[in-house]
Amino acid sequence: MSKAIQDNDLLYNILSPLVQFACRCHYNSFVVRGMENLPTNGAYIIAPCHQQALMEPLAVLNIAPKPPVFLARADIFKKPTFRAILTFLKIMPVYRIRDGQDQLGRNREVFDRCRDVLVDGFPLCLMAEGRHNNRHHLLPLGKGMFRIAGEAQLALGDHPLYIVPTGIDFDEYEQPYSNLVVNIGRPIAVHLFAETYRTNEPLALNQMRDALAEALKPLMHDIRTDEHYDEVMTLCNVLNRSMRNREGLRNTAWNRFLVRQKISQRMDALIAAGAPEAERLAADAARFADKCRHLRIGEKTVAEHWSLVGTLLALLTAILPIAVAVIFPVVRLVLLFCLLCYPIMLIPTHLIIKRKIKDPQFRSSVNWGVRFFFSIAYTIVVAIVMACTGGGWMSEVADIGAWWGLVAVVVAHIGAIVSGPAFTFLRRTAGSLHYWLLRMIRPGAMRDIKATLDNLRFEV
């Protein structure tokens, strides 16, 4: 009898914590809310929104108490090597109409295996929209998930099955060390639809789909307008700080997410009502974005730059370690050793990938993969070299012999943890410095931008 995909795998259990660690280190902030909503009295399907190729599954891997099983489009399983890797990662193929009408029948077997996963008590993860979308916008939901849920509930009998709506929000899609918010909602009990599913399957599928869509919208940043999407996104970026200050909210990833929700919901309401204020705000937001692009300065930088004194203090803080390292040889050796153990923060892999990967929805996933595998390979090589040479030039700091190999591994892990906050600090310092330099070099243009920004005001 062949091994089921949900069965225990020793190598998977060893690698999974490392992947979870790397996923969290990929972000400056990794925020999870609603863990108490994961059911403890039954099987469940985790149903996240889908805006990036691999990053949502990695986020789910961090929140699931048991190894989740995923579904992915079947075309990436064609090559035997990829199929073996994906199966090892507990990913099963699902066939779509574009794979050929004759292939759709194979979903029957896939659905049976999904049912077995749930019956065995393992979480199943299916992307609610069935395809990714690089916009903060919920797409129409497919019906495959709900057919699996209906069949599984019939097989489970009186044992409850739930669908767990999960909002996942990226404040930046391609920028490294951005922020991730995972917002887990109240579970939807599938047994409430079981009788309808027995007698009228299409109706039950529609009812479950509508219930999940309504549950997902308040959990994510869902901008409903298509016509003014970019303008609403600009407003979410540039009004965030002033609204947080007005409501007494600290500058955290969670609070920025909540404020973006409020701004977009208010704008969607104004647009739906045909309010003249919506058109004015959209036009002003478009002009503001154009002016920022013309001066090559970020929208968030204009809205959230530090004061001149704060910028100079941040610059001094960034320069101080380098100055100390120049003066004191021991500090210089330690700093160089740390950079030797974990140089990945200094490598702009996202810029290289942006040129190579045309589909923006895959760039963050490829960037994570490149940094993850490079970090592992590089750390192993450095650890071996340091162990075999007894630390080499680092013996001036401490003579601990082959233990330098273990120190190199520990420093690499610490570097991965602190790189997000450090990179974010340096990026914001550079952005604020750029802002104040433009204030001196292009005062007229910057006054114009500030005047446009001051017009972007509305009550929420």
Question: Which key phrases capture this entry?
Answer:
8-stranded mixed beta sheet, 18 helices, single chain, alpha/beta, flat
Architecture blueprint of SSEs:
Layout: H1 10-25, E1 29-33, E2 43-48, H2 55-63, E3 69-73, H3 80-88, E4 91-94, H4 107-119, E5 124-125, H5 144-156, E6 161-170, E7 179-184, E8 188-189, H6 194-199, H7 201-216, H8 229-238, H9 240-247, H10 253-272, H11 276-295, H12 299-304, H13 308-327, H14 329-341, H15 349-356, H16 360-389, H17 404-441, H18 443-455
Parallel strand pairs: 1-7, 2-5, 2-6, 3-4, 3-5
Antiparallel strand pairs: 6-7, 6-8
Helix pairs in contact: 1-2, 4-5, 8-10, 8-11, 9-10, 11-18, 13-14, 13-17, 14-17, 15-16, 16-17, 17-18
Question: What report would you give on this structure?
Answer:
This protein has 460 residues and is an alpha/beta fold. 58% of the residues lie in helices and 9% in strands. The chain contains 18 helices and eight strands. It has helices at residues 10-25, 55-63, 80-88, 107-119, 144-156, 194-199, 201-216, 229-238, 240-247, 253-272, 276-295, 299-304, 308-327, 329-341, 349-356, 360-389, 404-441, 443-455, and strands at residues 29-33, 43-48, 69-73, 91-94, 124-125, 161-170, 179-184, 188-189. Strands 1, 2, 3, 4, 5, 6, 7 and 8 form an eight-stranded mixed β-sheet that branches. Helix 9 packs across helix 10. The longest helix is centred in the C-terminal third of the chain and has 38 residues, at 404-441. It is flat, with a radius of gyration of 25 Å. The protein starts with 9 loop residues before the first helix and ends in a 5-residue tail after the last helix. The mean pLDDT is 89.
